[in-house]
Amino acid sequence: MAAQAVPLYLPGSSVVHRTGAGTKLLVLLAAGVALALWRSPWQVALAFALVLAGYAVARLPLRTLVRQLLGLAWVAVPLLAFQWIFASWQTGIGVVGSFVSMVLLAGLVTLTTRTTAMVDVVVRACGWLRRLGVDPERVGLMLALGIRSVHVVIGLAQEVREAQHARGLRASPRAFAVPLIVRSLRHADRLGEALTARGVDD
Amino acid sequence: MPEIRVSHVSHSFGDGSARRTVLTDLDVTLTEPRIGIVGANGSGKSTFVRLLNGLVHPDSGTVTVDGRDTVRDGREVRRRVGFCFTDPDAQIVMPTVAEDVAFGLRRRGLTKDEVRARTQGALTAYGLSGHADHPAHLLSGGQKQLLALASVLVTEPDLLVLDEPTTLLDLRNAAMVRSVVDGLAQQVVLVTHHLDLLDGFDRVLVFNEGRIVHDGAPAGAVVAYRALATA
Ligand SMILES: Nc1ncnc2c1ncn2[C@@H]1O[C@H](COP(=O)(O)OP(=O)(O)OP(=O)(O)O)[C@@H](O)[C@H]1O
Ligand SMILES: [Mg+2]
User: CB-CB: which of B79, B96, B103 is closest to A9?
Assistant: First the structure.
């Protein structure tokens, strides 16, 4: 299922699970900077190996990793081929390897951290925004809603595709995009109302 | 039971030539524990119940819940009035089950332990304790609606408004939602097209074109509603 390409917290008691959400987000940030600077095939291979080691230490099921890799293959394989042909294999490995490593590392963080814990970190980190009149709680809520919305929209996309199959329509990007956008907007509308009802604006 | 007072309320949507009156001079006081609302599509049921927690502000007239005006004291009213919508996906705001229940308890001055205990209690009460850390999007439709209910009920509202909570559910899931609603001590206002949900209700309002055309016990209301549909 496509929805599982976007991983979500899997309860556990490993070292990775017990590490604070703030630390994990900092590591993610640092890894992003490092991979932007160092992209030789060896450096990328090392980064990839470290990420895999992280999954092993977190004792996450192998199939979670495989599923994510399969989900990424759609983007990674054409991208690699493209870079290989138009640049060099070194560039290809560098670009695609760092991209895959970063997505997997982000996945490792979300798989081992409760959303609430991440939201709390973001709320604390955004405390200075209060002086600019921005409510940090709102920023945190937007983050949580963003994660939740990815799942909802993937579900809506599946519904649209199934409805089209059922009516025997052939897949065309527009016949897919239009109903998906309409449903997403309707969802956003209802969500806004539900948030008000749950006292978000109060 | 809270006293819901709707005084001379009218409401329209749209501007200019597109302006349409959706509710016309409604005047009703609701104090019974179980109140049902039925009526054709577009007759104004949803608009009416959205008045009760200030989601819709009436163009004219006033709505109060236990003396609190839904426009002026909207915040106080929303703390007392829980609202459950038709589409559970649109009501769940956090990615996992327990987090969504806990979401309703933030900014209520509770400690982390109190939030955890109350969340756990609600999950157990509504048969979701085995799913606490599961992603909400992997629940079945019925479980999602139970989660939406749990997330509202954990805040202990005095009044629960439900707008067609079983419309998207199959018979079994609808029965689960029904049994939760039956067991509640709170006042309930329920909009539905599933007339059997109204068995045992104290009072049923029948809406037609923005007016209350019948107000009484369920049996009589069902007869009045059927007569309208076949007229
Ligand atoms: N936000 C809005 N903007 C414009 N028109 C609206 C809005 N909400 C409702 N309406 C219109 O008001 C009328 C009453 O709608 P309402 O949703 O209250 O009906 P309902 O009785 O709940 O119908 P249903 O059984 O289909 O849910 C409808 O004609 C609808 O199109
Ligand atoms: Mg409605």
Answer: B96
Q: Ligand 2 centroid to A144 CA: how many Å?
A: 28
Torsional class of A186: left (φ above 0), alpha (ψ -120 to 50), beta (otherwise): alpha
CA–CA min distance A108, chain B (Å): 16
- Reported as a single tens digit per residue, the pLDDT across A119-149 is 888 888 888 888 888 888 888 888 888 888 8
Prediction pTM value: 0.81
pLDDT in tens, A86-102: 989 999 999 999 999 99
Burial (0-12, 13-18, 19+ Cβ within 10 Å), A140: buried
**Domain that includes residue A36, residue range:** 15-148
Q: Is B192 in the pocket of ligand 1 (CB under 6 A)?
A: no
Total domain count, chain A: 1
Look up the CATH superfamily of B4-230. P-loop containing nucleotide triphosphate hydrolases (3.40.50.300)
CA of B24 to the centre of ligand 1 (A): 14
Q: Does A138 touch chain B (CB under 8 A)?
A: no
